[in-house]
Amino acid sequence: MADPLLSILGVRKLFGGVAAVCDVAMTVAAGEIRGLIGPNGSGKTTLLNLIGGQERPDGGEIRLDGRRISGLPADRIAALGVARTFQVPRVFRSMTVLDNVLVPACADHRRTAWAQARGRAETLLRLTRLDAMGRMEARALSGGQAMLLQMARCLAAEPLVLCLLDEPFAGVHPAIKARMIETIVQINRERGVAFLIVSHEMSVLGQLAPRVSVMHNGAWIAEGPLADVAGNPRVVEAYLGRGGSGPLSPAAPGGV
Amino acid sequence: MDATLLTQYALAGLVIGAIYCLMAVGITFIYSVMRMINWAMGEFYMIGGYVQYLLIADWLGPDRWYLALPLAIAGVGALGMVVQRVLLRPMFAGGIERLDEYATIVTISLTVLFRNLAVVIFGPYQFSPRDYAPPVQLGPLPVNGSRFVAFLGAAALLGLFAWVVRRTWFGLAIRSVAQNRVGALCAGIDLSRIDMLAFGIGVALAGAAGALLAPVFLVYPQSGALSTVKGFEIIVIGGLGSLGGSIVGGLLLGLVESLGSVLISPAFRDVYGFGLLVLILALRPTGLWGERAREA
């Protein structure tokens, strides 16, 4: 494999005495779609916050294309091509849907012509099939549509090398979910954008991501194709609890 | 009551109302973007008045008053950006919890500082640049020239402000920050730069009001106190966070004060606005166009 796009090297984040993320090490290759799974409270969102710059790590280092990004402010990390979405859609509710998708362009408006940015935004709205609502205020959207809009805004960033999607499919109507999947696949294929997707929807991840990483109690515990990982005893234990699942429970207790 | 006289007073009310709008729009703009109240707004108004007076009386001469206005506005805006950069930016570092208290303490301290600096530098005297425009005839009504200039200036600035906020890249960035700071940050917007510019623009509007009114009212160290109160009255009337509400509220306050003065008694001029305020609070506690819902 070539040099990884994203390298997370022994990253640690403490909240008070609790380690939300402890010594996680993983890499994501350029153009890869990677799933990130783990039980609730396992530190997945915190890890995304650390990569995106919403939180600063207490230890370790995060590199993008070999360049250290941990410690940079979030807007600088975004300018390097890392965009993200949130579990609760953070859309600009009193703006039109089209303006929402134009916002990333105003961060670098000196290099982007209005017409070009607008063309790009309209293409994205067509791709996500939100184009009919372009002139509506975002507050009129349903929860799923707002998630979709948030993703479209994230994809409107230029440059864009890595998208961090935090539970993009949670509570979303199947039709919109299918559009999200199509969009991710298409953007990944056409622009070579890598995705790191936190989700509990194993069937969707199985479809999208050749490999998934698993976190538990802030630690990285496994990585590989979803089918392999699902059979990993540590993963089963993380999800089902120790001793709760008969033959799948780990042979050696006290491992975690 | 003579209809001509009444119209004249109504017109005078609207002129002052337009200036009040500048103050209120400045307050609500800073609040919308930074979620903080700038209690020193009136002191920036006062400084705008002094700068205008100095430019006209000493540096440029009364003939070039039209140059003095943009210079005074730019000067107050630049001062605001320095204040934001040096005194207010630290409150955004390391946790948002202390934001409100910090902003309140810093800006209230600034009112004390600026007022006393004005006393130290200029003394407790009252200044006024003389009228720079001749009276204007509006139909049958004569209007004081400086007031007329103040009205046109306020209307032009509000128009320019609305254009920037609605039609430019910068305006889009500002609106995104006002609606969702984290979302804007993750879209690559530099919040600290936007905050600094927004604070500068907000206080520049107050400076503009002070500069425009310098020949109409007097310039003295406490001259901003009342204008801060008026600004907040308008905010409560129009609704915090609503730019349209600030404009309607400002014009309404100007009208009520002016008509109250002529119909009842000029001695209670400042009371009529409070009457309106109490009425609005009783009927619509969030103001005419209060925020529909506060967002994180």
Main features:
heterodimer; A: 256 residues; alpha/beta; 9 helices; 23% strand; globular; B: 296 residues; mainly alpha; 11 helices; 2 strands
Give the topology:
The complex is a heterodimer of chains A (256) and B (296).
Chain A: E1 6-15, E2 18-28, E3 33-37, H1 44-52, E4 59-64, E5 67-68, H2 74-79, E6 82-84, H3 97-107, H4 114-127, H5 143-155, E7 162-166, H6 174-191, E8 194-198, H7 202-208, E9 211-216, E10 219-224, H8 226-231, H9 233-240
Parallel strand pairs in A: 3-8, 3-9, 6-7, 7-8
Antiparallel strand pairs in A: 1-2, 1-4, 4-5, 9-10
Helix pairs in contact in A: 3-4, 3-5, 5-6
Chain B: H1 3-34, H2 41-59, H3 65-88, H4 99-122, E1 136-138, E2 141-143, H5 145-167, H6 169-179, H7 181-186, H8 191-213, H9 223-238, H10 243-263, H11 269-283
Helix pairs in contact in B: 1-5, 1-8, 1-9, 1-10, 2-3, 2-4, 2-8, 2-9, 3-8, 5-6, 5-8, 9-10, 9-11, 10-11
Q: What can you tell me about this protein's structure?
A:
- The complex is a heterodimer of chains A (256) and B (296).
- Chain A is an alpha/beta fold and 256 residues long.
- Chain A has helices spanning 44-52, 74-79, 97-107, 114-127, 143-155, 174-191, 202-208, 226-231, 233-240; strands at residues 6-15, 18-28, 33-37, 59-64, 67-68, 82-84, 162-166, 194-198, 211-216, 219-224.
- Helices cover 36% and strands 23% of the residues of chain A.
- In chain A, the strands form two sheets. Chain A has a six-stranded mixed sheet, sandwiched between helices.
- In chain A, helix 6 links the parallel strand 7 (162-166) and strand 8.
- Chain A is globular and about 55 Å long.
- Residues 244-256 of chain A have low confidence and may be disordered.
- By secondary structure, chain B is mostly helical.
- Chain B has a domain at 12-124 and 143-218.
- Chain B is 72% helix and 2% strand.
- Chain B has a two-stranded antiparallel ribbon.
- The longest helix of chain B is centred in the N-terminal third of the chain and has 32 residues, at 3-34.
- The mean pLDDT of chain B is 86.
- Chain A binds chain B through residues 52, 54, 73-75, 78-79, 83-84, 86, 90-95, 99, 102-109, 114, 153-154, 157, and chain B through 169-170, 172-173, 175-176, 179-180, 182-191, 295.
